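Thread: quick sanity check before group meeting

JM: Hey all, I'm pulling together slides for Thursday and realized we never actually wrote out the predicted structure for the chain we discussed last week. Dropping the sequence here so it's in one place. If anyone has concerns about the input, flag it before I start.
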Amino acid sequence: MEKKHVIIDCDPGADDALALMLALNSEELTVHGVTVVAGNRDVDRCGENAMKVMEHYGRTDIPVAKGADKPLKRTLCLDDIYSGRDGMAETFLPYKGTPCCDKNGVDLMIETAKQYPGELTVISTAPMTNLALAIEKDPDFTKNLASIVTINGSYGVSRKEGWYNARKEWNVCVDPEAAKIVMESGIPVWAMGVDVTGQLTNEIHEKLVNSGTPGTMPYGFLTDAKRFLATRGLEPSGLFVDAMAVACAVKPEIARFVRGKAAVETAGELTTGMTLFDNVGNFNNASDLYAAYSFDFEMLTELLARRVMGNEKIRPEK
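JM (edit): ok, ran it. Output follows.
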């Protein structure tokens, strides 16, 4: 089996943590690194949270590199409601103290893309600041990178009734200038926007908990996260958004896409952070965007059940 070379650019985040769990348990992927960016929490906390997942799976050989600590032009507004004290919905995964690597996350992206020209995919589940900085720093980055798979944006292409409207999406709103640089760069972007990710239901959480084993990390992670989110009036379905990007990298057939161009609004009074999609020739920028209009949520549930919940055994305390 030919494996896909990937870097995961994230801001853990309970949803990012579940995406990492799926990636580390998917033999279709060769994960060359995890780059973190300030988003859900500050970049140091995000790096520590990513490392907690790597430690659990014994994959501290994969570099976790900290990148941008703030958006390109805006003030970082941390997600205090959703993320909780630990930044991961108060799941409080143990941390043994393994540090992030010394290399900057932007440099890790650039160097890995040079090492695997035309083969590397970045799975983006965070504000796109690291990617934008890589594009600005290395003129060859856009040519070397094969693609980006992301859950950023909203494109109004969903064919489910009631989900047609395009809306602002959180990661893009954190750093719209970065998203504009990335999405309009010409790098092929495969995007599952809010009009698709918003179709997740709480049923997936129920099915995954029922498929898991009490006493294991993923089981406790899901139950603890749901408990915390309930105190904030939030539903657990949002925990699985970022895993959709990993699932798409693993099984591209999981989603159906329409190809077009994208433009990111950065100066609107009400629309800053919106991602506009067009496939009838209204935009003349370099963007090459594939917007998902449907997604197989049963396949996502099966992947998570088998690879994250089903692979886990109760581990003795050390």
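AS: nice. Strands lie at 4-10, 29-36, 64-66, 120-124, 145-150, 188-191, 255-264, 275-278, 288-295. DSSP finds 13 helices and nine strands in the chain.
JM: adding both to the slides.
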